[in-house]
Amino acid sequence: MPDFEPVLLAGITNPDNHAIDVYEATGGYQTLRRIVQQSTPTEVVEIVKASHLRGRGGAGFPTGLKWTFLPDDHPGPIYFCLNADESEPGTFNNRILMEQDPHQVLEGLILSCFATQARTAYCYLRYEYPLALERLQRAVDDCYERGYLGHNILGSDYSLDVVMHRGAAAYICGEETGLIESLEGKRAWPRIKPPFPAVSGVFGKPTVVNNIETVACVKHICERGSDWFKSMGVDPDPDNPRDLGSHGPKLYCLSGHVERPGCYEAPLGITVNELIEEHGGGIAGGRQPKAAIPGGISMGLLRADEFDCPLDFAGPGTYQCLGLGTAAVVVMDKTVSMVDFLHNSCQFFAHESCGQCTPCREGTSWALRMVERIRAGKGRLHDLELLLEIGNSIGIMPGTTICGLADGAAWPIKNAITKFRDEFETYIRETNPTGFDTRDPVPALETIQLH
Amino acid sequence: MPTVIVNDVEIEIGPDEQINGIQAAKRAGVEIPHYCWHPGLSVVASCRMCLVETGRKDPESGDVSLVPKLVPACQTPATDGTVFVTDSQKVMDARAMVEEDLLIRHPIDCPICDKAGECTLQDYHFQHGREERRADINPFTSRRRSLGDTVTLFVDRCVMCTRCVRFCREVTETSELMVTNRGTDEEIDVFPGFPLDNKMSGNVVDLCPVGALGDKDFLYQQRVWFINKRSHVCAGCSTGCSIDIEENQDQIYRLKPRDNPHVNHWWMCDEGRYGWKHIHRADRHVQAYRQDQLDPVALDGTTLAEELDQQLSSTATIAAVLSPHLTVEEAYLLATYVRSKDPAATLVLGHVPVQGENETYASGFTIRAEKCPNRRGVEEVIAGIAGEVITWESFLESLSDSSPEAVWIAGGYKSDWHDDSVAQRFDSIPLRIVQDTFTSPLSRAATYSLPATAFAEQAGSFVNHEDHIQSFEQAIRPPAGVIPAGQLYWRLLDRTGLYQSQLVLAEIARAIPYFNAATEPPGELGINLKLNHLAS
Amino acid sequence: MSSSEPGTTVPGSNGPDRVLTAEMVAEIESHFDRYPSRQAVTLPALHIVQERLRHVPLQAVVEIAELLDLKPADIQDTLTFYGFFKQDQPHGETRAWVCRSISCALLGADQIRKHLSERTGLKPGETTADGKLTIEAAECLGACEFAPCMLAGTTLYKRLTTDQVDEFLESLEQPHGA
Asked: Which has the closest alpha carbon to B268: B154, B139, B167, B409?
C-alpha cells in the first residue's frame, strides 16, 4: 500500500493553522473563491454526487444524493445545520478538526451551503467543546471580515450567515431531527419521517444536516475533484447494485487499551488490526486483545479474532456489527469483563434515550436494570434471553422506534451476549449459584420507578 | 374509487379522502390498537402500539409486496392500493412488546384506579399482551399531584402518550402542561404558579388512555361498570355539543363529549362538562302549587292538566313565554295548546341568557356567549306559528300598555334569571302559570307554580346556533313530582297515549317549513336544517 | 432569592423580585435576529442565565418565557430535558465533569470518580457546602485519546491520575481558583 498523504489532517501539523492568515497562506479559501465566482450550485452538487462521498456522522448516507432531495422550486429560505454535536462514545475527530483546522471546516461548510443554496447555517456545537467554540467563533468572525461570509461573498451574489448554537449535553441532539428540534428550542425528541428535513426541516423549511468531517471532505472534493476522491477507499461490489462503496479519506479515532490512542487518517477500508498495529502502536502493555468497538459504541463489538474486519461502510456488517458508524475504534484487552462493558453501554443508552417512544424508553431502562442485577450477583440465565430479545426488537430497522438510538442501544447487547455468551453464563452461574436457573420474576434491585 | 386492503378485506375510500391506517382498518371492521394517536391532535407515532405491516398491491398482477419493517398505522396514509396487515405474528409480537414495556414500570393500582373498566392499558393487556410478567417486580402505588382546580395527575400511571400536552399546545394554545426530564424519568407536570385552568381543561381527562389524569369532580365517585351512557346534548350554550350523560339510577356522575364532526368533534368546554350540578340541587322545585290567597296548595299531578285547562279555557287573552331551554317539541306543543285556547295568543321567546363573548379555539371549536341550547329552535317554532317573534324584553315593555289575562311562562333555567322588579310587572295579570326548575320571584308570585325538568330529563330536540338539530331521549328521570313539560302539554292537548317526542318532531317538520329536513328522525349526529332544507 | 411566589410577578415590572438583569435581557435579545422564531432562543437564553447565576431558577424561567413570548411550561419542558441546567440551587464555582463513557472507563475513570467523591464527600450532581465545587458524571467528552478525562469549566484535564485529582482540588482552595 503506497504511503498515504493526510488530507483532512494535513493542516494540523502547524499548531497555528487555526488562524486565518496561516490557513490562507497555504492556499486556504482559494477553492471557495473559484467556486463561488465561477461555478453554479448545481455543478457543486454534481461533483459531490460523483465523488460518492458518504456522510461521516454515522449513517453513511450519500451526501450528494441527500442534497438533491431539496425541492427545486421552494421559495426558501433553505437552512444548513452543521452537526457538531459529536457525542458517540469513542469519537473525537470532529473535535480535532474544529480545534485545529476550523477554516477547513468552514470552507467546506460555505461550499456545501453554496451548493444547497442555504442562506443561514446553524452550527450546532456540543457544550462540552469550549475550545472548539472559541476557535470556530473566531474563525467565523475572521471570515466575515475577509468577505468569505456575509453579504455577497467575494463579490458574488451568494450570501450566507453562520450562527453558532450551543447544545446542552444530550446525545440525541446528534440525531438529525433531534438536532432540529433542539435548535428550535424544544426538547430534542426526533421527528417522525416523512417528512424528511430536506422537505420540511428546521422552522418548517428545507434543511440539510451534515457532519463536520463530511463538509471538510466537500472542501477537498471541490479542490481536487471527484476522481481523486474516488481513488481512495473501496469500490462498490460490481455484483451488488445496492453497494455504494466507501470512498475517500477517513479519520479513525483509536482509544482504549492501545499504546498510542489518537486520531489517524487513512483511506476507507483499513482493518482494525492495521489501525491498531500500524497507527496505534499495538495493544497497550503488550497485553492480549479481547474485543473492540468498530465505530463508536452503537456499532457493537468485534471479537479479537475478528480484527481483520475492514473499516469501511460494508465491512463491520459482515461481522454482525451495525456498521462503520463514526469509525471510532475502542480496544479492550483481556482484563476487561464483558459484563462491565455491557453495563457501561446500557447505562449510556438508558441515560441518553430521549424517552419519546415506548420500546426505546422502556427497553433501554429494562436492559440496564437487568445488567445491574446480573452484576450484583442476582442474575438469571433467562435474563440473557430477555436481553437478546430486547436487542432484537428495538430499533428503526425493525421499525419499532422513531430513530436509530435504539439500534445503537441494541447492537452492543446483541454482540456482547452472542459473541461472549460463555463469559456471561459463567459470570451468572458463579455469582448467583442458587438463583441462576430460575425463570420466575425476581424482586427488583430497587424500586423501578424511584419516588 | 381508491381501494385499500386490510387483511385481505378490500374497502373503498373517497377520492379525496385523507385517512390513515387506523381509520382505514376501522372501516374494514378491524381495530388497530393505539395510545398516542387522536384524530384531533398532531401525529407523533410515539407509543408504537399501532405498528402494522404495510405494502402495496400491484393493480395488474394483484401481487402484494410488503415493506420489511413495521410502520405505525397512524402515520401511514391509506391510498389506492395500500395494503395493511394487522394480524401477522410480527404485528402481534410488536404489540405484546409495547404492552409489556408499558407495564414494566406501571404501578399496581387497578383496584384503586378510577380508569378501571374503561382503561386502554387494561383492555390492550387482555387483547394483545403477554400471559405473564417477565420483568423484575416491585409493586408500588402511584404518586399524585394536582394540576389545577379540576384535574389531578397520578404521575406514575402515565404512559407518555403526550395527548394532554398536545391538546394544551394545539387546541387551546395555552401550554399549561409539559413533559419534564428525559427517558424513564419523564413526567407530566405544570409550571408552579401556572396551573391547568383553561376553559377546556376537562378534555385532557377524556384524552388520557390510562388512569393518569383524573377529573377531581368524578374521582372515586362511581365505578364505570355501574354507569349507563345516554346520548344527549349539552344545554350550556348554543354550540350544542353532543354528549353522553353518564348516570346510574338517575344520578348523573359525569358528562363526556360525543364525537360529532358537525358540531363539536371530540371536545366540550368545562362549563358544559360540569354544568349539570343544578340538576341535583336539593332545592329543586319539585312540587306543583296553586297559590290560593295566602297559602300554597300542593297539586296532584294526575289532576293538574284538567285544572289548568279549565282555568285557561275561561280566559280570553293568553301569552306564552317559551324559554330557549325548552325543546323544539315542548315549545311547539305549548304554543299549539295556547293558540287552541286563544287563536291570537302572544308567543314570546323567553329570556336568552348571554354571558361574555364567543371564544373560538384553534380547531374552530367555539364556546358561545349565548348560554342556552335552543334559541334557534324555539324562535323558529314561534315564527312558524305566530309569524313573528316577540322578545322577552319587548314583551316586558308591552306589559305597561296592555297585558293578557293569562300568561304561561315556561322556564327551565339553570339559575336566577330575573329579579323582583321583573316579577312585579306581572302583578296585574290574573292568571300566572310559571313552570321552572327553581323557585324565583315569578314562581313565588305565580298563580300556578309548576316544577320544570332540566335538560337531562328532557326528551326532544335542540337546534344550535347554526341550524343543526339534534334529538335525544330522556337520560334520567326527574325527581318525583316533576312532570316533564312534553308530557304535560301532550295531556293538555288531549292527545292519547304517551308523549313521544319523535312523533311530535315529525309533525313539526310537516307543519313548519324550517324544520322540514327533520321529517325522518335525525340520526345520532343530528342534521343541519339549513343545508338539508327541502325545496318546497 | 426572593420569597415571592413565581408567576405572581407582574410581567414587565422591574421590581426587586426580577431575576434577569438588564445585561442578561440585552444579551438574550441580541439573539433574536439570528433565528426566525423566538422559541429558538430558548437554549441560548438558558445558557446566558446559567452562566451568570449558575442555575436557572423558576423565576428566571418565567422571565425568559415573557421575553420569548412563550409560556413558562414551554421553557421548563426544554430546560429539564437537558440534565445540564440546574434549577433549585446554583452549582459550584467550578463544575467538574468526569467522563464515564467506555474509553475513559477502560482507563480508570471509575477509580478517578470514586477518589474524587471520597475526597470531597460529594456524589455526582452535588456541591460542596462552600459553593466552590460541583462534581458531575459526564457522558463521552470527546477526548478519548486523553482518557481518563475531566472537564472543569473550560479546562480539559487529560490522562487524569488520582494525584492530579488531589492537585486539582488543592488548586480550588487558592484565591484565584482553578
From this structure: B167
The answer on A374 and A312 residing in a single domain is: no
A450 part of a folded domain: no
Q: CB-CB: which of C39, C68, C142 is closest to A129?
A: C142
φ/ψ of residue B450, rounded to 5: -115, 140
CB contact, 8 Å: B191 with chain C? yes
Residue A443 has pLDDT above 90, yes or no: no
* Whether residues A130 and A147 fall in one domain: yes
Indicate whether A305 and A414 sit together in one domain: no
Sheet holding B242-248, edge to edge: B228-233, B242-248, B251-257
Domain of residue A285, residue span: 246-333
pLDDT at B293: 65
Asked if residue A376 and residue A343 are part of one domain, the reply reads yes
Domain with CATH 3.40.30.10 in chain C: 94-173
Give the H/E segment covering residue B10.
Answer: strand B9-12
Q: How far is B143 from chain C (nearest CA, A)?
A: 19
What pLDDT is attached to residue B100?
Answer: 98
Which residues does chain A have within 8 Å of residue B51's beta carbon, measured at their own beta carbons? 399-400
**C100 contacts in chain A (CB < 8 Å):** 344, 347
From C7, C74, C83, residue closest to B193, measured CB to CB:
C7
Interface membership of C137 toward A (CB under 8 Å):
no
Is A343 in the same domain as A375? yes
Q: Is B417 strand, coil or helix?
A: coil
Return the CATH superfamily for domain C94-173. Answer: Glutaredoxin (3.40.30.10)
Percent of chain B residues past pLDDT 70, beyond the cut: 99
Average the pLDDT over B37-51 and give the result.
98
Q: What topology does CATH give the domain B289-528?
A: Rossmann fold (3.40.50)
Q: What CATH number did the domain enclosing A25 receive?
A: 3.40.50.11540
The last residue of one of the domains, among A333, A353, A386, is A333
pLDDT at C9 over 80: no
Of the three residues A309, A333, A357, the one that is the final residue of a domain is: A333
Q: Is the ipTM of this complex over 0.90?
A: yes
Q: Is A175 in the C-facing interface, judged by CB distances under 8 Å? A: no
Does A402 contact chain B (CB < 8 Å)? yes
Residue located via cell numbers 387551546: B172
Q: What is the CATH number of the domain that holds A273?
A: 3.10.20.600
Surface of B (141-180) touching C: CB under 8 A: 174-180
CB atoms within 10 A of CB C76: 26
Please state the pTM of the whole predicted model. 0.96
Chain A CB contacts of C40 below 8 Å: 183-185, 203
Rounded Cα gap, residues B34 and B323, in angstroms: 44
Look at strands C133-138 and C94-99 and give their pairing.
parallel
Buried-exposed string B447-469: b where 16+ CB fall within 10 A, e elsewhere: bbbbbbbbbbbbbbbbbbbebbb
Q: Which residue(s) pair with A81 in the sheet?
A: A122, A209
Give the model's confidence band at C16: pLDDT under 50 very low, under 70 low, under 90 confident, else very high. Answer: low
CA distance C85 to C99: 18
Q: B12 has which bridge partners?
A: B3
What are the grid coordinates assigned to C46, written together? 438558558
Separation CA A190–CA A196 (nearest Å): 11
Q: Tell me the fold of B136-277.
A: Alpha-Beta Plaits (3.30.70)
Report domain B3-87's class.
alpha beta
| Total number of domains constituting chain A | 3
User: Looking at domain C1-89, what is its CATH homologous superfamily?
Assistant: NADH-quinone oxidoreductase subunit E (1.10.10.1590)
In order, the DSSP letters of A104-161 are HHHHHHHHHHHHHT-SEEEEEE-TT-HHHHHHHHHHHHHHHHHTSSBSSGGGSS--BE
pLDDT value of position C176: 53
